[in-house]
Design a protein that fits this description.
alpha+beta; Glutaredoxin; four-stranded mixed beta sheet
Length: 219
């Protein structure tokens, strides 16, 4: 029985940044037992700070909560933007070149939140993404700015809102037997690992039962 873990994220979200160790550990721990995928959920003005000072305040709070030895960098921040389309579009566009793993979005997140690079600029994002994935910068930029990529971003963001949650990251864990668990804003490993273990156990039971009894009798 298949278990699928989907993470909804925004590339420049600091809370998504802090969740990355948990995401990496989940992928390692459940390799071969669960499928992992990420989708973009663009932050809107409600989820964005209104000033660099406010951003710094949030970074101090989250950094202390995560016991981080470093503070995130706010030099990338641009208060005039209502959403951060460029870095998210570049990360999404890399999928069109077979790069569906985490390397491009992680490179963009690191460049913004640790190095303070101006990821509001399309060329900067394309350079970072191309370097991380060894892709042609011009082709990656063209794909990132295409209507198809933006359409996918809007659709995945709409999927996120349909879950009726507000926090990024949100992790959705699904099984083929119809079970679903949603963790919105939770970035700790333990509750998600315990849930996946339980869901894998239930799925295994269903598979065993089917092997012994087959499909249910008709009504």
């Amino acid at each position: 029985m298949k278990v699928t873990v989907t993470e909804y994220l925004d590339v420049v979200s600091s809370w998504c940044f802090w969740s990355e160790p948990t995401w990496a550990e989940l992928k390692k721990r459940y390799e071969g037992k669960a499928e992992f995928q990420w989708k973009i959920a663009l932050m809107d003005p409600i989820g964005l700070p209104t000033s660099r000072e406010q951003e710094q305040w949030f970074y101090r709070r989250s950094g202390m909560l995560m016991r981080s030895p470093f503070m995130l960098n706010t030099d990338w921040y641009d208060a005039s933007l209502k959403e951060w389309l460029a870095p998210n579009a570049v990360a999404e566009a890399a999928k069109d070149f077979g790069i569906a793993d985490d390397r491009v979005r992680l490179a963009l997140s690191h460049a913004a939140l640790r190095e303070g690079e101006k990821v509001s600029e399309w060329n900067v994002c394309a350079e970072i993404g191309a370097r991380a994935a060894k892709l042609d910068k011009a082709k990656l930029l063209e794909a990132a700015q295409s209507p198809d990529v933006e359409k996918r971003l809007r659709e995945s963001t709409a999927e996120f809102h349909a879950l009726q949650v507000t926090q990024r990251p949100t992790f959705v864990i699904d099984t083929e037997i119809g079970d679903r668990a949603i963790f919105s804003g939770v970035v700790r490993l333990e509750p998600m690992a315990a849930t996946i273990d339980s869901m894998l156990d239930d799925a295994a039971f269903y598979a065993t039962h089917k092997a012994h009894f087959g499909a249910p009798p008709p009504k």
